[in-house]
């Protein structure tokens, strides 16, 4: 999460300077406004201007904190969440959780969080401190909790977000396990056939003066291409992925186009939209319930979407509210149609909170249904794809054999 050095004016008079983590400058302004401060100037900076990647390597070499795995992050959140439900303040919940857990990386990270909180850091800044404890979406959920004054409930949404991520990884891993096994088997069979079976078959066909079938010619061309250009192809492919990732992280316009492309994918796009809409609705509800202006709430909640294209649409919705558009019209396209109807009804009766609460629950159910459909589609699709590859290999190898047998039997006929 970016770190900003800012100057702000107190509503009661006077200036305040400081540094704070925020997803965007607009999100920083909204958080400060909720605390009675009006942002004057904000400049993005680093934790330590003289440090960059070298600082991260130094932390690792000295045996400092390391990024936790998703399972460890979830364990940390559940421990803190269990204690938060007893009513303890957040910093005391972190301290108690650190004492309950056995020695290990999770306990070490909790103690570091506790030390940072004792020094006056915000929870979102502590979680974003390198190495970042959570992904940007979880950090944004925590920031919405701080802005709304309801951090315990926001923490529950962080737990749910991490559980969803873990469930998604588990489902996808289970769905691709068998197709990946078939793919590896197909590659091994292809290599063996290319080395031991195909050359004598091709020599036999040539000796009989027969033409090779199309499938066999394609297989030979593919094998020749992999042998000649496989290394360069691998380098170019990996380099392209790394280049796109770097450009996406540095150039917002490219990131928005990449994220918009993800939304247009047949099966993955609806899944991304469903979970983004559920998180956005929960974040917006938390901040509206905390008394934040809907326009400011939209800007802060935009980071929970986890997609630059959708986040831009959320900022445009905030501008639409300033121009007098109703919330249901300004946020059209950010969530499913059912949510839009609920927001419209909430505006009509003058109470948005029940509509946002029911809509957030409905969006969450739709997101989980979308996950079921995606993983249900993934395994048979990959199985059919690998099965088609195996069928092509068998056809390419056995086609010339049957053709040669036919030619031999024809030549031997009286």
Which percent band covers the strand fraction?
5-15%
Cα-based radius of gyration, to the nearest Å: 28 Å
Largest sheet: 3 strands, antiparallel
Shape: elongated
Helix content: over 70%
Structure description:
Strands 2-1-3 form a three-stranded antiparallel β-sheet. The radius of gyration is 28 Å and the shape is elongated. By secondary structure, the chain is mostly helical. It has 16 helices and three strands. The chain has helices at 25-34, 53-61, 70-84, 90-100, 105-118, 123-128, 136-148, 151-207, 214-250, 252-263, 268-289, 294-301, 308-322, 327-330, 337-349, 352-411, and strands at residues 3-10, 15-21, 37-45. The model is unreliable at 48-65 (pLDDT under 50). A hairpin with a 4-residue loop joins strand 1 and strand 2. The protein has a domain at 1-64: Ubiquitin-like (UB roll) (Roll).
Short description:
The chain is mainly α and 414 residues long.
Pick out its properties.
mainly alpha; 3 strands; elongated; Ubiquitin-like (UB roll); 414 residues; three-stranded antiparallel beta sheet
Fold blueprint:
Blueprint (H helix, E strand, L loop, with lengths): L2 E8 L4 E7 L3 H10 L2 E9 L7 H9 L8 H15 L5 H11 L4 H14 L4 H6 L7 H13 L2 H57 L6 H37 L1 H12 L4 H22 L4 H8 L6 H15 L4 H4 L6 H13 L2 H60 L3
Antiparallel strand pairs: 1-2, 1-3
Helix pairs in contact: 1-7, 1-12, 3-4, 3-5, 3-8, 4-5, 7-8, 7-11, 8-11, 8-16, 9-10, 9-16, 10-13, 11-12, 11-16, 12-13, 15-16
């Amino acid at each position: 999460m970016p770190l900003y050095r800012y100057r702000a004016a107190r509503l009661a008079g006077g200036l305040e300077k400081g540094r704070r983590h925020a997803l965007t400058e607009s999100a920083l302004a909204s958080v400060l406004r909720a605390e009675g401060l009006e942002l004057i100037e904000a400049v993005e900076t680093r934790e330590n201007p003289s440090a960059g990647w070298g600082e991260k390597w130094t932390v690792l070499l000295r045996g400092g904190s390391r990024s936790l795995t998703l399972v460890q992050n979830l364990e940390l959140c559940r421990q803190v969440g269990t204690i938060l439900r007893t009513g303890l303040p957040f910093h005391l919940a972190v301290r108690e959780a650190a004492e309950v857990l056995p020695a290990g990386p999770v306990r070490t990270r909790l103690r570091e969080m506790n030390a940072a909180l004792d020094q006056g850091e915000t929870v979102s800044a502590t979680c974003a401190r390198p190495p970042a404890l959570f992904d940007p979406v979880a950090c944004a959920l925590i920031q919405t909790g701080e802005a709304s004054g309801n951090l315990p409930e926001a923490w529950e949404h962080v737990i749910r977000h991490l559980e969803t991520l873990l469930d998604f990884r588990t489902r996808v891993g289970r769905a691709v396990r068998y197709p990946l096994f078939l793919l590896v088997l197909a590659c091994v069979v292809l290599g063996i056939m290319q080395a031991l079976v195909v050359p004598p078959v091709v020599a036999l066909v040539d000796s009989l003066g027969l033409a090779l079938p199309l499938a066999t010619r394609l297989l030979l061309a593919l094998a020749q291409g992999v042998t000649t250009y496989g290394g360069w192809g691998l380098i170019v492919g990996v380099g392209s992925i790394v280049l796109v990732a770097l450009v996406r992280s540095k150039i917002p316009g490219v990131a928005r186009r990449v994220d918009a492309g993800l939304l247009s994918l047949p099966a993955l796009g609806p899944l991304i939209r469903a979970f983004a809409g559920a998180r956005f609705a929960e974040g917006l509800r938390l901040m509206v319930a905390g008394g934040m202006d809907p326009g400011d709430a939209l800007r802060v909640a935009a980071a929970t979407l986890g997609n630059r294209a959708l986040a831009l649409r959320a900022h445009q919705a905030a501008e639409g509210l300033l121009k007098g558009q109703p919330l249901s019209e300004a946020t059209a396209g950010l969530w499913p149609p059912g949510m839009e109807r609920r927001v419209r009804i909430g505006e009509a009766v003058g109470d948005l909170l029940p509509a946002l609460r029911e809509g957030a629950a409905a969006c969450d159910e739709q997101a989980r249904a979308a996950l079921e459909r995606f993983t249900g589609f993934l395994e048979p699709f990959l199985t059919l794809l690998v099965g088609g590859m195996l069928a092509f290999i068998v056809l390419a190898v056995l086609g010339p054999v049957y053709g040669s047998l036919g030619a031999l039997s024809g030549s031997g006929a009286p």
